[in-house]
Please model this.
Amino acid sequence: MSAAEVDANVSEIPARIAELGQRVLNGEQVTREEALELFALEDSADIHTLLSWGNRIREHFKGNKIHLCSIVNAKAGACSENCSFCSQSAAYQTGSPRYGFVDPEPVAEAGEEANRNGVTAVGLVAAWRGLKEGPMLDEVCDRIREMKDQGQTRPDASLGLIESQEVANRLKEAGLECYGHNLESSERFFPEHCTTHTFEDRLRTIGFLKKAGIKICSGGIIGMGETREDRCDLAMSLREIDASVVPVNILNPIEGTPLAEQDPLPPLEILKTVACFRFILPRKEIMIAGGRTVNLRDLQCMVFQAGASALMVGNYLTTLNQPVEKDLQMLRDLGLDPDWTEFDPNDTGDCGCGEKESCAPTEASETVTA
Ligand code: SF4
Model:
């Protein structure tokens, strides 16, 4: 490249990022093609320019509040599904713990700990294909009611596929406000990491939940061998389903799974992906979830500069995270506010994502997946 070409690039690329960033700040959407331009950035200086715009967009739409979530693994291991990243699949020998649906006490303890740490929501997570009508649904509804009665922290759930409207309605009646159900990756890449259910099955589940009036927490996992185009298409699908909270997990390769030897994504590629998600989903809670400690190491705090507005704290389902106190200190050091004092656990019109009007399911979004 000649010196003149270098000079032209130096001014053109930051100007293009700024043009797209300004449009997002003005309330416009980036197109898939425009988002792909951002995903394609390679130069470290350009990526840092993108991150600073991710930060600016986050601050514009979300202020300095950071939404904290934690999870409690209510049923572990021996899952019938074969998601290639997951240590809880019965298809793989991983040494991950296995136990049946837990008693009320551990769930109550997780709720109390979350309350103590000012965590917005605690998700009840189960490793199984999905939830059907029957005694297990009764138990799940009991746990949700108990957590709700406990106080400050909002009970969420992530309980796999739902195959009927009745199940979603029962969860809503029990007081569930937000359900976690990741799309995981693009529709194109999905069959490469799971063959026991489909992307369409996941969209159908989301359709039932939205129809029941439950907010959607849905994101994915990056670093499984998908392309940048797949990551872009995942974000576009999440925009289409109008997910309120968008967890971004980064693959933590587990021995015994098919992805055990997968090369990690470089930290800058991860941060760039977070920033691109912020451009595509400017008003949503973009939550950094599993895999951040092992993949980002000392760069963890940069996820907020890239545009993240939420953080999964406490231990993950089968892997360890850094202590909550350390995360809280990191947020304060960055001038961010982890206190979610405005969240009213009884206000069913707000899932806590900070978008009191726009996060309510719309008729148009209900038709996307039903
Ligand atoms: S990701 Fe969920 S559905 Fe897939 S194997 Fe793991 S526990 Fe089962």
